[in-house]
Design brief:
By secondary structure, the chain is mainly alpha-helical. It has nine helices and two strands; from the N terminus they run αααββαααααα. A two-stranded antiparallel ribbon has the order 1-2. β1 and β2 form a beta hairpin.
Length: about 250
């Protein structure tokens, strides 16, 4: 199990409560439900019952349905005939397709970042790397996921192409649960974080060729690991426990 825990260290039910908070209600519901899916609180293939979700979030059905429509547009849930909304299950082939696309888009974004190197973007990337270093040893898998998402977001922004950044955000939403499971693999996480630091250094140095190579290799390994996770039923590959997330 590569030193991984017997269960995913993720979101608790109490964190789903939205009622009484001042930010846009729809945005909050979407954010909390997205996080619940990403951390495996709602499993791939699990039916999402409106009554239960209303009780957990403390919001009305119209607000909940708006949030579910947004999550369906993001590809995190689907509406199945006679079953209603349920969490999307990705097949191994779909994961391969998503990671192939990610490799093309993210490598291009990183290469563009290395070419442009706007000072504000470089500073933002270096700040994220510092935060990455802080969570590597003691951070929870969720904290590592959040910092990793900030890192990839900084690369997308650094490309200078907002359409590319938007596409990458949508893609990362689709694979976030897989990334979260992967972050329970301690050795794999250490290798990944080391690569991200090297990638950051190549971008800051303006070395487009090295940036391209590091990003391509990193995502090829990540794609292979992602397929292994899905093939194992959203479990950590090699795990013998019964904590798989597929319904």
């Amino acid at each position: 199990m590569d030193g991984a825990p017997d269960h995913l260290d993720g979101m608790k039910d109490g964190a789903l409560l939205v009622a009484g908070q001042s930010v846009s209600l729809r945005s909050l519901v979407v954010e909390r439900l997205r996080l619940a899916i990403v951390t495996g609180r709602f499993r791939p293939g699990q039916q999402l019952r409106e009554r239960e979700l209303c009780e957990l979030t403390g919001v009305s059905r119209p607000s909940l349905r708006e949030a579910l429509r947004q999550l369906e547009a993001e590809g995190l849930i689907i509406t199945a005939p006679h079953r209603g909304p349920m969490v999307t299950i990705l097949t191994s082939e779909e994961v391969s397709q998503l990671y192939d696309l990610r490799r093309v888009l993210e490598t291009f974004a990183a290469r563009e970042f290395a070419r442009r190197r706007r000072p504000e973007d470089v500073a933002a990337l270096q700040d994220v790397v510092r935060r990455l270093n802080e969570v590597e040893e003691a951070g929870t898998p969720l904290a590592k996921l959040e910092v990793g998402t900030l890192f990839y977001g900084a690369i997308a922004t650094g490309s200078g192409n907002p359409y590319l950044a938007q596409s990458l955000r949508a893609l990362h939403n689709r694979i976030a649960l897989i990334r979260f499971v992967s972050l329970h693999q301690r050795e794999r996480t250490a290798q990944s974080f080391a690569t991200l630091r090297a990638l950051s250094a190549a971008i800051v140095a303006g070395d487009e060729r090295l940036t391209d190579r590091l990003c391509t290799e990193h995502l090829e390994v990540a794609g292979k690991n992602a397929r292994s996770i899905v093939d194992a039923g959203y479990r950590i590959p090699g795990s013998t426990d019964d904590t798989g997330l597929a319904a």
